[in-house]
Amino acid sequence: MADIKLYFSEELLSWFHIHKRTLPWRQNRDPYRVWVSEIMLQQTRVDTVIPYYERFMDRFPTVTALAEAPEAEVLKCWEGLGYYSRARNLQAGAREVVDNYNSVIPDDADAVAGLKGIGPYTRGAVMSIAFNRPEPAVDGNVMRVLSRYFCLEDDIAKPRTRIQLEHLAKSLIPEGAAGDFNQALMELGALVCTPKSPGCLTCPVMVHCQGRLVGKENVLPIKTKAKPPREERRLVALIEGSGSNVGKVLVRQRPETGLLAQMWELPHLLEEEVVQEGKAIKTGRGRKKKDTIIEESSAVMGLSASPDSGQMEQLGRGLAAETGLLIRPRHRWMEAEHIFSHIIWKLDVFLADFGFVLKEKEIQQMQYETLLQGGLVAAEQKAEYNNFETAPDQLFSGYAASETAASVSGPEQQEVPLPAGYRWIGPEDMRELAFPNVFLRILGNYWSERY
Description:
Blueprint: H1 2-19, H2 31-41, H3 46-59, H4 63-68, H5 71-78, H6 85-100, H7 109-113, H8 120-131, H9 140-149, H10 159-172, H11 178-191, H12 210-213, E1 230-240, E2 249-253, E3 264-265, E4 268-270, E5 274-276, E6 279-281, E7 292-293, H13 309-323, E8 325-339, E9 343-358, H14 360-365, H15 368-372, H16 392-397, E10 405-407, E11 422-425, H17 437-450
Protein name: Adenine DNA glycosylase
Keywords: 4Fe-4S, DNA damage, DNA repair, Glycosidase, Hydrolase, Iron, Iron-sulfur, Metal-binding
Pfam families: HhH-GPD (PF00730), NUDIX_4 (PF14815)
């Protein structure tokens, strides 16, 4: 065992010194640069990260610059990279470094581990690459390489196995070469010992790879499958402005905590199932391929006649019950998809007109079924919605002159208060507001069609 360990370490280092990629975070050993790169590289491909990393470092070149920046600016710079909690935790950690360590990332494994958002892998990467400390940095690539080379058949999804692999990785680190060795392990997993079809013939440690010798290189590592993400179908309102807001759309900011905290989005809500005779009935036309724009010529303007009338009714009712925002969905315009680690959003996007905003007192006193004059219940309640016959024009005509409603239709449109967190934006505002990827794509398609 000692011989194949020594062989592994020596051959891997020699290979790395010849074949290592030129990457922007390898320009020097600055711990801040290493830290930022390792956070960005979590669950994200190197080629994807490079332009984001360069832009981020240009805007926030030091830990102090990041700590002092407004969070909205940090999120905007991170926009498109996904997993936005990484950006928030990175900035929170930078503020801890400024406040507690005089703006200098400490050469201390326990101190680094105590920073916000830093787990065992990132601690090991920063300590080894930036400070050359013999700390293991075990990620998915490393677990795969070690499992195959040593023919380890324990489930790498179990914490116990990960701890064992961390001990093994630490025992392999050559004296004085921790940073290069850890990067070499990651590089081998990324370029040669890949998840599928590993390139064994080009592997520098092929000769003593125990997994290859017993024919298990395509079986290892052993990993139990995670629970698949649940699917949510959501209805999205792309609300177009008129009058002084012509050419703009209505967006809202998410809450300060939780999923996609403080990012901007189009108004949307979870689609309910319509139940008939004990069976769930799917509404809408059925799923198309990802990010599909539906031809406008196929749209049916009347709510009661449209095949999407149930979804449009639910969208209008839900937003009214939630914020007092009354809209008139016109037709389904686009379908899109957004994948989180635990949820998949299936989005049906509807173009809609902005009607008016109910005052708080009216929201509390009126049920939406009164507005629609159809005996309907609020969006949160489960019910059958099969008798909706109120057309869009009828919906708005009864309340356009209401004293308790703020009308915003017509050429003489006046600005009225919107629900909290809502605002009108044009394409120029996209430069300052941070949106999740899926809404970037939807709005990008929308603006490209109209400009």
